[in-house]
Amino acid sequence: MNIKDLKILLALGTASVIGLSAVHAQPQLAPFKVESTAFPDGGVVPEKYAMRGENVQPAFSFTGLPDNAVSIAIIFHDLDVSLGGGTDDVLHWTAWNIPVGAGGIPEGVLPEGSVSGNNIRNQPGYMGPGAPAGERYHHYVFEFYALRENLDLDVSSTSRDDLLAAMEGKIAAKAAYVGRYRGTAQQ
């Protein structure tokens, strides 16, 4: 190795260390705790909460929210589907302006003042897991965002991208909860 190559390697190493420092210097969003009596985090979603079952929205409780959080937004989607060969997956539910004072959401309903956005069927409300029968489970992710302010969005036309854009700069904390689901042959 000649001296020129050594200088280049040293410069690249220094740049990498500086880059890592910059990443660690970014403010980190505090996590908060999400729990559900419907199924454990990472567990199998019971039929009651699936499309082929009763399609009931599960209950969730929130603890450890930052003091500056005003409301919660939810994005619920199936990670194991790629639509049109792109990065989009199946959007099962969006909701926002869920008051933090409610401490969570009860089974089947949202607290007063909450807004339920459209799912992939362009219908407002919760749409439970609907993976086909097979050996493989689909992974359904509930993303929870604690926001510093409520969002003013048109319920009839707000997409997931619109919701994400509206939340930009307003997120105080974030959490996720995962359920696994696969249909059964008798359905």
Structure description:
This protein is α+β, with helices and mostly antiparallel strands and 187 residues long. It has one domain: PEBP-like (Phosphatidylethanolamine-binding Protein, Alpha-Beta Complex), CATH 3.90.280.10. The chain has two helices and nine strands, in the order H-E-E-E-E-E-E-E-E-H-E. The strands form two sheets. The protein has a six-stranded mixed beta sheet, covered by helices on one side. Strands 2-3-6 form a three-stranded antiparallel beta sheet, with no helix packed on it. About 6% of the residues have low confidence.
List keywords for this structure.
17% helix, 2 helices, three-stranded antiparallel sheet, Phosphatidylethanolamine-binding Protein, six-stranded mixed sheet
The CATH homologous superfamily: PEBP-like
Distance between the termini: 66 Å
Beta content: 25-35%
The best one-word shape is globular
- Helix-residue proportion: 10-25%
As for the CATH topology, it is Phosphatidylethanolamine-binding Protein
Going by helix content, strand content and strand pairing, the class is alpha+beta
Strand order of the largest sheet: 1-9-8-4-5-7
Q: Which regions are unreliable across 5 or more consecutive residues at pLDDT < 50?
A: 6-12, 14-18
The Cα radius of gyration reads 20 Å
Number of helices: 2
